[in-house]
Amino acid sequence: MTNPTRNPAIVLVEDEPDILIILHRIMRDLTGGYDIVTVNSAQDALDVLTDRSCPLLITDHNMPGMTGTELTQKVKTDYPETRVIIITAYATPEVERTARSAGVDYFLTKPFSLDRLEQIIKEVLGRA
User: Fold this and answer.
1) What are the CA-CA distances from residue 126 to residues 17, 20, 56 (Å)?
2) At the topology level of CATH, where does 9-124 sit?
3) 3-class secondary structure, 121
4) Is 0.85 surpassed by the pTM of this model?
5) Between β-strands 35-39 and 56-60, what pairing exists: parallel, antiparallel or unpaired?
6) What is the pLDDT of residues 65-85, one digit of tens each?
7) 91-100 — which CB contacts under 8 Å span 24+ positions?
8) Residue ranges per domain, the chain?
């Protein structure tokens, strides 16, 4: 059950701390009015979603325990209003196809353009 008294959250899921810090800095500059919640596992992301409204989740694909595709599938089943962006350095046609069939909204391959990420975030948050 989400807590209506808390600001909506944008959840960043990344198991590499340096990348998580960079994503947080980018998001902080783009997303006024949203709390930016950083976690280093898919399970931690799911725990956040049980307590927070979350219009956007950005996740790495290759993580221990659960891939970004598996996380996307769970999020889309339980929180269909949450938009999901998967970011990966290990993109293959099969990984992208599997992610799309799981319901991912956007699939970005590292390295990606910060302008493209900004454009997607603005679209998702209705600020285009």
Assistant:
1) 29, 24, 12
2) Rossmann fold (3.40.50)
3) helix
4) yes
5) unpaired
6) 999 999 999 999 999 999 999
7) 91/61, 95/61, 95/69, 98/69, 99/61, 99/68, 99/69, 99/72
8) 9-124
